[in-house]
Specification:
Length: about 575
């Protein structure tokens, strides 16, 4: 069962949701058989529907996680998708909203005289079945009681929203819509700013004191919540967790959702120190040892039955979060990014690209191909082979006048040849050209006579132009293709992939050339099997379909031959960089 619904425009999902009249309509909307849905909701025992476990909180205590079964989780994900496309979040809501994050939330409260943080007690569990059912029946959804009941049944467990269900975040935001409006009005009337990130509510103001309707501050930990403020919270079915209420003046370190906001959103120094220590451990003791120590320290904070995330992904995620908060031009972020890139290249056995390490995307080497589909395939191949490594060069086709909407994959060996020959001798960027190993590609490569040929490396190079070029390396099993000058990038895939078609029955078109006679491989498959190395790819739109639809979902193993191309590109770039220094 696919995780997502069939491709349906969000507006259509919203209209279908608001038009639900029966539980069978719900099953249809979720693209799930009605009897199977009823079985999952009402027949499967509770202990098979959910797994409950506790993990310790870093601040002390435990957090109960209620994780749905695989099938129920898929149903909930589909419903969550529909609800996200139906619910219109208030501008003051930042948690569980696409396109918003804790940095955006914190930014609303920077440079304020006072910041007040409160926490809603038992947020998810306090949203019970009756509240969820009533919300679906009330405005603006106005769904029949039978529909609201089955929707609430999908979302709830043991009379509350389970922390671990995909539907809980969006449903909690829907439940809080009325409260958000009332608190926003209160903030406006009191000349304050209000935001909510899940169960974290923040008020801030530039006034010299917090308005009495919001709170009266006796000290950092002694805050008396205003009666009007508390009344809104309680009337909407929530309670304030008084142990987590904090008020900060501009003289103190003001925090909002874990970020300091006195001048601008910023990260605690402890976070940076921890990240630096993780990178140091990786560099000094190796990836395996660093990962083992990290897992020993932090595994207890995760589901004991789920796989631990890789150390590499944790480090990369922390670095990117640092960049999100501090900005991509921050020197600390750039330093960590360079160190991570160096370590990941070493781990993958790849050569380092110095110009990438300077963290200036505009200075990355350019790798040019004959056609746009060649570039698309190489981009996909890098992403699949080295998913945790940012590509240290920019891959693009050689046609300088191609418009973004142009569907033709044509570029051509001659266009690439002329581009490389006409590069300025004082070029600032490294350029690498990759030619197909066919008649046109080999001929064009040979005609680049203002570059020096390196017979040992089997490439041509121009140090003045900071450029080089080569014909596609020959992958194992395609030697005869190269001998017959028929090796293009599509033939790096095996024959089963080459023969693949999309849902409309379209894909690559191949022809066989015996002398001057052209034979369609579809018309004469026997001849194609007999002389596969004489096949050529025709460009009648099939190359674009192949690159866009057939190549991306292929398994990683299908891209193994492309390591030859990337190894050669990196080696050539290294040679050009070393020559400059």
């Amino acid at each position: 069962m696919p995780t997502q619904l069939p491709l349906t425009p969000p507006a259509d999902q919203s209209r279908a949701f608001l038009s639900l009249t029966s539980p069978r309509d719900v099953a249809k909307l979720l693209d799930y058989r009605y009897p199977a849905l009823i079985y999952q909701l009402y027949k499967v025992p509770d202990d098979e529907k959910y797994e409950t476990f506790e993990i310790p909180k870093k601040a002390g205590g435990t957090r109960t996680i209620t994780a749905p079964s695989r099938i129920l989780k898929l149903i909930q994900r589909r419903l969550a998708e529909v609800l996200q496309n139906t619910y219109k979040p208030k501008p003051v809501v930042y948690g569980f909203v696409t396109g918003k994050n804790i940095v955006d939330n914190a930014r609303r409260h920077k440079k304020k005289n006072w910041v007040l943080n409160i926490d809603l007690e038992n947020f998810f569990p306090s949203i019970n079945f009756g509240r969820v059912r009533g919300m679906f029946m009330g405005k603006p959804y106005n769904l029949p009681d039978s529909v609201a009941t089955i929707l609430a049944q999908i979302c709830c467990f043991k009379n509350g929203l389970p922390q671990g269900a995909p539907t809980s975040p969006v449903v909690s935001n829907m439940i809080c819509a009325k409260m958000d409006s009332e608190l926003q009005d209160l903030a406006w009337n009191c000349r304050c700013f209000y935001t909510r990130y899940a169960d974290d509510i923040t008020f801030s103001t530039t006034l010299s004191e917090l308005p009495i309707q919001i709170a009266k501050v006796h000290s950092l930990l002694d805050v008396e919540i205003g009666k009007e403020f508390e009344k809104i919270i309680v009337s909407n079915g929530f309670n304030i967790n008084s142990t987590k209420t904090r008020a900060f003046s501009y003289k103190q370190r003001q925090e909002v959702t874990g970020l300091t906001v006195n001048k601008f959103p910023n990260i605690r120094r402890k976070y940076v120190m921890q990240l630096r220590a993780m990178l140091y451990a990786w560099e000094t003791h190796g990836l395996e040892a660093a990962e083992a120590v990290h897992n020993q320290l932090y595994a207890r904070y995760r589901n004991p039955k789920s796989d631990l995330p890789s150390f590499k992904k944790i480090v990369k995620g922390k670095i990117e979060f640092l960049g999100l908060v501090k900005g991509k031009d921050n020197t600390t972020y750039q330093s960590f990014k360079r160190q991570y890139h160096k370590l990941i290249l070493q781990e993958k056995g790849l050569r380092r690209v110095k110009s990438f390490d300077e963290m200036n995307i505009d200075r990355r080497p350019r790798v040019y191909t004959e056609g746009v589909t060649d570039a698309m395939i190489l981009q996909t191949a890098w992403g699949r082979l080295y998913s945790d490594v940012d590509c240290p060069f920019i891959i693009k086709d050689c046609n300088p006048i191609r418009s973004a909407h142009q569907k033709s994959s044509a570029g051509g060996a001659d266009v690439l040849k002329n581009f490389l020959k006409n590069l300025n001798e004082d070029a600032q960027l490294i350029s690498v050209g990759i030619f197909d190993r066919d008649d046109a590609g080999i001929s064009a490569l040979n005609e680049i006579n203002n570059y020096d040929a390196d017979q040992d490396e089997n490439w041509k190079i121009s140090l003045q132009r900071k450029a080089g070029c080569f014909a596609l390396p020959i992958p194992t099993g395609r030697e005869k293709y190269a001998e017959n000058k028929n090796l293009c990038i599509e033939f790096y895939f095996d024959d089963e992939v080459i023969a693949s078609k999309n849902s409309d029955g379209r894909g690559l078109s191949l022809s066989l050339y015996l002398g001057k006679k052209e034979i369609s491989t579809e018309d004469d498959p026997e001849m194609s099997r007999k002389y596969p190395e004489l096949r050529k790819v025709k460009d009648n739109g099939g190359k674009m379909i192949f690159a866009k639809e057939i190549v991306p979902p292929l398994p990683v193993s299908a891209f193994e031959p492309f390591r030859l191309v990337f190894d050669k590109v990196l080696k050539l770039i290294e040679s050009l960089e070393n020559a400059q220094t």
